[in-house]
Structures are given as structure tokens and as C-alpha cells.
Amino acid sequence: MSSVADPFDLCLVKWFATLDIMASLAGIGTSPADEDRCWYLNKLPDTDPGFVDDISGYSPELMPMLARIGEMASRQDLRAAIEQGTQFILPRQLLEEAQELEASIISISDRAVSEATLKNHGSALAADLRHTHCAFVHATLLHLHRRVLLLQRDHGQVTEDIAHITNAIARINPLSPANILILWPMFSAGCETNLISERNLIQNRMGNMQNLGMGNYTRAKELMRAFWMSGSSLPWDVYFAKLEIELVLF
């Protein structure tokens, strides 16, 4: 399957890819058995793979990793163990793949923007995009740790993931358009953290986006607060799926 060359078509493919991956991570989408589900991964060109994309907010290298984690997290045995609160021993193959994915994600944690992006958007936004990529990398690790490796919310790796996300958010200009891109990292960290300081940072940043008319941030903020009020120990996607609430964080 050939990649897309036309700039407009490529923009549409990136937009759809981001939307589909975010839906998958929220537990929404087609069956994991659908072989054509991630067809868009083969449509993305190999140019500038090590640079942060200005449409998604992260390097395209992360896309197949996100897609795979979404597939892994959709396993019925994992979801059942989470919902029932039962102890579950990961199958060896799944554990090994998760560990390999973890190493791959960490290996791309530091990425800059391309010269073209720097020229088109300027140095301030270019700097912010480095931090959006960092937020996505650690949100990906958070999802892997919580939904695939089944680590508890108070586990050291989970709290470290959240700290990295909130630190990345804090480094982004509060009024930068780059904030529009990081709804998923913000929401994920916001739901998982119990620290008031981290919750306040995320609420305030979401409020900035609400003031700019971003309706998706309004709904996400309301659901995040509802999740806090529930006191649930479930991962947020499992919690909202049980309530039959669909939320695509994009």
C-alpha cells in the first residue's frame, strides 16, 4: 500500500489516524480482529519520522505503538481482570511484548521539530511542540502501565508517568495553540492523579482552552470531575465504558 504524497490528503490521513487511535485508546472502535483497522499507518510517508508532527503533536513513530497498545488493552481477559479486581498473571508473550513496547516508547522520548515546522510556525511553537510530544510519550507509557501491565494507580511507575506529563504541560505556554493537541495526555493524567497540585494544573489549563471555545475540553473537564467524585480505582476508559459513555479525546 503506497503512502500519501499530496499535502492535503496527507493532512486528512493524519487527522483520521489521530482520531482513530484516540478512539481506540478510549475503548471505542472496530474489532481488534479487523485486519484493515490501522490501514492509515501504511499511508504515512517515511519522511521526517524522528520529528514532532504539527498536526498530531507527537512524532509519527509513536502512532503504531499507540495503535498496538489500544489493541492490547482491548483484550477481554485484561478488561475482565480490571473490572472484577481479580489478580491476573499476564501471559508471557503479552508481558514480553509490553516490555519491548515500553523500551521503544522510552527511546523516542526526546524529539524536536523539523526545519520546515520551525520555519512555518516559529521558535515559540516549535519549543511547545517538543513538550507536547513528551506529554504524549508519557501518556502512552501511562496507558501501557495501567491498561496492559495492570499497575495500580499508586505504583511508582504510574505516578512517575503522571509527573512527566504534568511537567511537560507546565512547560507549554498556557495560551499556546499547542495546548489544543494534548487533550488526551491532560485527561489521562488528570483522571489518574490524586495530587491536588497536578489536578489544579490540568483543570486550569483545560479552562484556558474552554475560554478559547474548545467544546471538547468542556466535556472532558466535566467528565474528569465526575470521575474524581466517583472515587473509582478503575482506569478512566474502563470506568466510562461501564457507564456507556463514549469520549474521544481529540
From TrEMBL:
Q: Organism's domain of life?
A: Eukaryota
Q: Name one Pfam family in it.
A: Fungal_trans_2
The answer to whether UniProt assigns keyword Protein biosynthesis to this entry is no
Q: Can you list the GO cellular component terms from the UniProt entry? A: nucleus
Give the keywords, sorted: Nucleus
The subcellular localization recorded is: Nucleus
Q: What is its main location?
A: nucleus
One GO MF term on file is:
DNA-binding transcription factor activity
Q: Which residues cross the membrane?
A: none
Biological processes, Gene Ontology terms: positive regulation of transcription by RNA polymerase II
Looking up InterPro entries in the UniProt record yields:
Fun_TF (IPR021858)
Q: What PANTHER family does the database record attribute to this sequence?
A: FINGER DOMAIN PROTEIN, PUTATIVE (AFU_ORTHOLOGUE AFUA_1G01850)-RELATED (PTHR37534:SF43), TRANSCRIPTIONAL ACTIVATOR PROTEIN UGA3 (PTHR37534)
This chain's protein is named: Uncharacterized protein
- List the lineage, top down: Eukaryota, Fungi, Dikarya, Ascomycota, Pezizomycotina
